[in-house]
Design brief:
208 residues, Diaminopimelate Epimerase, Chain A, domain 1, 2 domains
């Protein structure tokens, strides 16, 4: 049997009697965990042929099986604006304003689940309310059905979307009468113009 021992780790066992361990021994042929515990006690299970790996304090968790739950998106929901309960455009803008006070200047504010069909009049929102709520943060809020993206002027600027930007082959940049973008992008080819410039979240900076 070929084995490896991992030492000096922060190992989550999910065993209520011993939830954390420093070390673990593994059968490298089958992947079976043979022992978990303190460094010294696990080290004693090895032989002269056992591979020793120093984890240097790194965290080890059991493997996750993603049953199509969008794990990263789910984890980030707590940091995003949830507009699902908002009954009008101004209520969404107030949530954005509150989030802006907790977000470093220049960083993206994301979220969504807004549904204009539930708002009085059912009109499309515009960048104007988001500009007032978060003038120093680019904002991108997806609609509940995922077909629309509502953004502010700074987000449009980051994506280089102007009155001269043509509509993509499929989708649309909604516009005011003078051709200026309203702040609503329709369908994936249009929304991707903004999504493509949003930085991926830093998992270390996102820890709370």
């Amino acid at each position: 049997m070929s084995t490896a021992i991992y030492l000096n780790g922060n190992i989550y066992t999910f065993d209520s009697n011993a939830p954390r361990a420093q070390a673990m021994a593994i059968d490298t042929t089958t992947g079976r965990i043979l022992a978990v515990g303190l460094n010294d006690e696990v080290r004693r299970t090895g032989t002269q042929h056992t591979e020793l790996v120093d984890l240097r304090g790194k965290t080890v968790v059991p493997g996750f099986i993603d049953a199509h739950i969008h794990l990263l998106e789910t984890a980030l929901l707590s940091q995003r604006v949830d507009a699902s309960a908002c009954s009008n455009e101004n209520e969404v803008a107030e949530l954005v304003r509150a989030r802006a006070t907790q977000t470093p200047v220049g960083q993206w504010i994301q979220g969504g689940l807004w549904d204009k069909n539930l708002w009085p009049g059912g009109n499309f929102p515009t960048k104007i309310s988001l500009d007032a709520a978060a003038p120093q943060h680019p904002v991108a809020l997806s609609s509940k059905d995922g077909h629309l993206l509502w953004v502010n002027s700074l987000a449009l600027q980051r994506a280089n979307i102007t009155a001269e930007t043509p509509d993509p082959a499929t989708g649309a940049i909604l516009r005011f009468g003078d051709g200026e973008p309203t702040g609503v992008l329709q369908e994936i080819d249009a929304t991707q113009l903004v999504f493509s410039v949003i930085e991926r979240p830093d998992p270390i900076a996102s820890r709370t």
